[in-house]
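Below is the record:
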Amino acid sequence: MSEERDEELPQTPVPRARLGLSGKLLLLTALFVMIGEILVFVPTIANFRLTWLSDRLAAAHTAALVLDAAPDGMISDDLTRQLLDSVGAKAVAMKKGDSRQLLAFSEMPPQIDNEVDMRDVSMYSAIVDAFALILSGSKSDVMRVVGPAPRGGEFVEIVMDEYPLRQAMLRFSLNVLAVSLAIAAITGVFVYASLVWLFVRPMRRLTAHMVAFGQAPEDASRIIVPSGRADEVGVAERELAAMQRELAGTLQHKNRLASLGLAVSKINHDLRNLLAPAQLLSDRLSHLTDPSVNKLASKLMVTLDRAIAYCEQTLAYGRAQEPPPQRRKVDVAALLDELRDSLDLSDNSPIRWVPSVERGLTVDADPDQLLRALINLVRNSRQALLARAPNDPERDQIRIIGRREGAVVVLQVADTGPGLPERARTHLFEPFQGAARRGGTGLGLVIAAELVRAHGGEIRLLEGTLGATFRIVIPDRPVMLDERRAERASA
């Protein structure tokens, strides 16, 4: 299924670097294989040199036994030369006790250029000497090799040319190089193919889907289909698919909101034109002396006020961004008096207004924005209480509590109404989804939350209370000590 979806995916060119992931993987594979081969070759070539010299010493041992066992003068010069040729040496000598005996020599031994003592050879010195011999360009150097002697002798030594050993080591190196290259090539191909299949190919698939989805995130067909792998790649595919689905849904929701905002902006002018004559007519009707007409006029004015408030609330939420708050010290008691007058919660109102604010309490906030936030909350409480008319002031109350807790001011808006329904609690502070009554937009709480958060505060619904209780926390601005000192100094 995922392969079919991959074939249907738009062929979007994926930008690649000069050396892609597969190229880097190939270079690293070849590099590490060659490093491994070098680590194997270095001790191998040193061991080959020691083995080659040990074989020559073994042949010299045999020749020494023959020469030592034969009576003096019984071995001809031709036989001596053949023995030396079989050893590949110019001279063979052996030491017994305090005497050192030259058993055979083909000619006057030449000057010795290098010496090798096979009785005590460390790995480090063997490696260094091996590579020094390979890199040497001389063809006439002579070496003296000393090794343990047979039949109780202290040591046997041979004098020989270095060139045959160097040639043998070069041939061996070429053979090892050829085998290493073959092994490296075969291993590299299998490792590279395996890694490409297991990692590079899935990464390319993930990249292609991300690029294609980024070009059209609303297109659900571009959401990756997980391959069902149980490893980390499979987890990445599943998480990417979940993220893409969530993002696509969010974008669709935002598009609907944008379309709604565009529609509201288009009908705003016509709606205002329709409401303006209706307001004028209702004002005229309110001045008539007929009681029935006055009663209908008051209801008409309330209905028009609700329609205007609904339109203004929607338009206020549709604005791109609220201006930053212009904060100053605000008297909370005076602000609540203004709030009470704005919502017509007088002493004669069927809903009782119960403020409980600390004496002299001030809040560091933008008075207009804080008032708007409180109006949205109190209006919701008022509408919830009016919905169960006839009202009783002893039962239907709105309480405002204000106090200072350290560097923050806490305001609580509570009512004795039926509380918020479960749907409103689930989508609290979400536009057009958290409405608590029929015909509502759910924007009042959203706007209030935005205004409170602009002050660095928080707003939340308290659980387990009678009716609905919202808690607002407004922190004081941090005090800049340098500015405060400058103000005091200027004063």
